[in-house]
C-alpha cells in the first residue's frame, strides 16, 4: 500500500475533498495540517506556491482537482466506465466555475479583502447560485440515483456536497428553493464513512 501524506491548512477548504475521498475509501493517510506561520517557509518549495499537496511515496502532486481525480481513480470513486469518468470530470469542472464566481464574495466575507459584503452577496453570490444550482439539479434528475453520475458515489459527490453544506452554513438558506440539492447533501453525508468523519473531524469555520 502506498504511503499518502496530505498537506493543507487546518481548515476544510480545498483540502477537505481529498480527506473525504480517503475516508470514504477507508484508506489511511497522514493529515498534515500546516500552521499559517509555517507556510512562508514551505511555499517556495511547492510546485506552484499553493496548497493542498499530496505526497505518494515521496512523489508530490499539486492542485486540488488533480489530487481529487487521482485519488478517485486510485480508489474506484471516479465512475464505472470511461464515459462516467469523463462526465464526473465535466460536472466538476463546471462546479469549479461556480466556485470561481463565488470567490470575490467569500474573500471579503472572510476578511481576506476589503469590500461591501452585502453588495457582493446581492450582485455576485446570489446570481452565481441561481445560475449554477439548476445545473446540478439537472444532472441529479438525469442519474435518478441520488448521485451526480451513475449509480454509485464518486469523488465529485463528496467534494460538491461538502462545499454546498459549508456554503449553506455561511449564507443562510443558500439552498433555499432547491430541496433536491438539500436531499442530495444529506444523502452523501449519511454515507457511513463520511458520517463518521464529519462527526470526528476538527471543527473549523470553513
TrEMBL record:
<feature type="domain" description="GST C-terminal">
    <location>
        <begin position="81"/>
        <end position="206"/>
    </location>
</feature>
<feature type="domain" description="GST N-terminal">
    <location>
        <begin position="2"/>
        <end position="79"/>
    </location>
</feature>
<dbReference type="InterPro" id="IPR010987">
    <property type="entry name" value="Glutathione-S-Trfase_C-like"/>
</dbReference>
<dbReference type="Pfam" id="PF02798">
    <property type="entry name" value="GST_N"/>
</dbReference>
<keyword id="KW-0808">Transferase</keyword>
<protein>
    <recommendedName>
        <fullName>Glutathione S-transferase 1</fullName>
        <ecNumber>2.5.1.18</ecNumber>
    </recommendedName>
</protein>
<dbReference type="InterPro" id="IPR036282">
    <property type="entry name" value="Glutathione-S-Trfase_C_sf"/>
</dbReference>
<dbReference type="GO" id="GO:0006749">
    <property type="term" value="P:glutathione metabolic process"/>
</dbReference>
<dbReference type="GO" id="GO:0005737">
    <property type="term" value="C:cytoplasm"/>
</dbReference>
<dbReference type="InterPro" id="IPR004046">
    <property type="entry name" value="GST_C"/>
</dbReference>
<dbReference type="InterPro" id="IPR050213">
    <property type="entry name" value="GST_superfamily"/>
</dbReference>
<dbReference type="InterPro" id="IPR004045">
    <property type="entry name" value="Glutathione_S-Trfase_N"/>
</dbReference>
<dbReference type="InterPro" id="IPR036249">
    <property type="entry name" value="Thioredoxin-like_sf"/>
</dbReference>
<dbReference type="GO" id="GO:0004364">
    <property type="term" value="F:glutathione transferase activity"/>
</dbReference>
<dbReference type="InterPro" id="IPR040079">
    <property type="entry name" value="Glutathione_S-Trfase"/>
</dbReference>
<dbReference type="GO" id="GO:0004602">
    <property type="term" value="F:glutathione peroxidase activity"/>
</dbReference>
<comment type="similarity">
    <text>Belongs to the GST superfamily. Sigma family.</text>
</comment>
<dbReference type="Pfam" id="PF14497">
    <property type="entry name" value="GST_C_3"/>
</dbReference>
